[in-house]
Amino acid sequence: MVTLQPVTPLEKSYLDTLGFAWHTDRDDTPYIDDKLLVMTPDEAEAFYEAGNTLYEMYIEAAQYVIDNNLFHEVGIPFNLVELIKESWENDVHWHLYGRFDLSGGIDGKPIKLLEFNADTPTALFETAIVQWALLKQNGMDETAQFNGVYEALLENFKRIVTLEEDPSLFESRYEGWKFLFSAVKGSIEEENTVKLLQYIASQAGYDTAFAYVDEVAFDGEEGIFHNDTPYELWFKLLPWEDIALEEPDLAMLLTQIVKNRKAILFNPAYTLLFQSKGLLPILWRLFPNHPLLLEASFEPLDTKQVRKPVFGREGESIAILDADGKPIQTNEGAYDAHKSIYQAYTELPSDAEGHRYQAGLFFAYESCGVGFRKGGEILDNMSKFVGHIVRG
């Protein structure tokens, strides 16, 4: 059984001052849970090690897909293949951050990979800032968390310049590049998440600006511009698969921009390989029976399983199936047209009331922090965020 500790919730007015405006769900219930999940130091260390191991496995799996031209098999749109290869082969295309979704890791259950949100991961603000604030506002030890997300991002922004070398070399090597941050209009969550990243980049030492995606100009020969100012670095909270399928002209322009070395994009295009759940069967092919993996296949399994689209979010278009492939529970959604994979079912840890808990482990050069989501068998956009405390 998951161990929980009640805390005094953060006031909405305080959350607003932090820039965390999505604190209340559409049913008028708080998005941030009023309890902390209690973890042990050993559990925190296990999450740290798991993320580092999984990232190395993802690198090997992505290389396998590239070497064997398996882009179609894992669901990659054809108009991004060239850009993926280009970004993969040049070290300057640095992966800024991602989030592993994991089952287990608490209550004695083994850690198992569910998927990797490597391109446009959400829950950054609540993991890096809000759960830390919960400890601070409740008079608890602010260091009693596995939560170095902010600091890891700060260091990783510097590694965009230093790459594998010591990030303290940033100041001597930084050439005054301008860094543009963009979100799509209409989502305060996405906009403020991007502005948090912009703030961290500014703290690292970059000259930054924010613009909505539709305010940015792209030229295949000249680069990326906003208000006639060129930007060498561009972060977009816009999924690569959406660019490929809904904005093919932009996909072509970004390919030209990268090939002409006019700008570096974040997260780089190769993170779409990591993002694709089509890599889960590839991982199982390369690392069969690995303790961090669940069996996965492009064909139905002969056990209780979960059918997932290769690209999808917020639990949409996911179904839990029995061993005969018959639906037990189904979430309809907007991703039904995507290719599906099948992953062996694993039961998420639960509390006394039957709520399920899924870990979100952030990775920025290394594993750097964890937060939890609480909900039912299939977590969706009404799931709650649960902070944690490490003690024991």
Strand content: 15-25%
End-to-end Cα distance: 16 Å
Level of helix content? 25-40%
Strand tally, please?
Answer: 20
* Mean pLDDT rating: 94
Give the helix tally: 11
Number of domains: 2
Query: Could you say which structural class the secondary elements and strand pairing correspond to?
Result: alpha+beta
What does this structure look like?
The strands form 5 sheets. Strands 4-3-17-18-19 form a 5-stranded antiparallel sheet. Strands 12-16-13-14-15 form a 5-stranded antiparallel sheet, with helices on one face. Helices cover 32% and strands 23% of the residues. It has 2 domains: 4-275 and 350-390, no CATH class; 295-344, no CATH class. α2 packs across α11 (279-286), α3 packs parallel to α9 (248-259) and α5 (149-162) crosses α7. It has 11 helices and 20 strands. The radius of gyration is 20 Å and the shape is globular. By secondary structure, it is of the alpha+beta class. The mean pLDDT is 94.
